[in-house]
């Protein structure tokens, strides 16, 4: 088994386990609290509206916006780690059909693994900070992943040398 294939298959499996474990942790220990917070903020907004109290409506909707933002990113992190893990595994099975050097394939494999880890980490960091740093991590991770997928496609399109 080539080094590139090992990186993609074992890295993909490890990332899939990590993503599923994170999803399980979130579902068991955090999701219900997040959904309760979302529901409570909406209840507060409707109650405030019924009482014609604009301050309560505004603060409740702000709480809803923040809780929903964090909830969406938490779910995205789990699904992106797991989904990108599946992409890595498929890439691993396809690597033998890519017409690039062994070193090139290995660099693509490590890049794809790095991108698949960094992109969701950047999304996760956005739950703690809305600044540019977490967004930059997510953008760099997704950029690396896209570049590696492009290079893989390029390797597929290259003409394979004929062996006689």
How would you sum up this structure in a few lines?
This protein has 164 residues and is mainly α. It is built from five helices and no strands.
- Which bin fits the share of residues in helices? over 70%
DSSP, total strands: 0
Mean pLDDT across residues: 92
Could you list the spans in which at least 5 consecutive residues all have pLDDT below 50?
Answer: none
Q: How would a textbook summarize the main sheet? A: none
**SSE pattern, N- to C-terminal:** HHHHH
Overall structural class, as computed from helix and strand content, comes to mainly alpha
Count the DSSP helices: 5
Query: Any idea how many domains?
Result: 1
- End-to-end Cα distance, whole Å, is 23 Å
Radius of gyration: 21 Å
In percent, how much strand structure appears in the residues? under 5%
């Amino acid at each position: 088994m080539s080094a590139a294939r090992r990186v993609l298959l074992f890295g993909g499996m490890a990332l899939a386990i990590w993503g599923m474990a994170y999803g399980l942790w979130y579902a068991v220990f955090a999701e219900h609290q997040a959904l309760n917070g979302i529901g409570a903020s909406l209840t507060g907004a409707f109650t405030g509206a019924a009482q014609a109290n604009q301050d309560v409506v505004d603060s409740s909707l702000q709480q809803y916006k923040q809780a929903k933002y964090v909830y969406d990113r938490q779910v995205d992190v789990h699904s992106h780690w797991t989904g990108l893990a599946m992409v890595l595994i498929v890439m691993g099975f396809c690597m033998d059909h890519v017409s690039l050097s062994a070193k090139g394939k290995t660099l693509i494999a490590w890049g794809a693994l790095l991108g698949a880890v960094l992109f969701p980490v950047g999304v996760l960091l956005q739950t703690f900070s809305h600044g540019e740093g977490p967004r930059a991590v997510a953008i760099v991770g997704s950029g690396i992943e896209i570049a590696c997928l492009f290079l893989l496609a390029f390797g597929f399109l290259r003409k394979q040398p004929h062996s006689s």
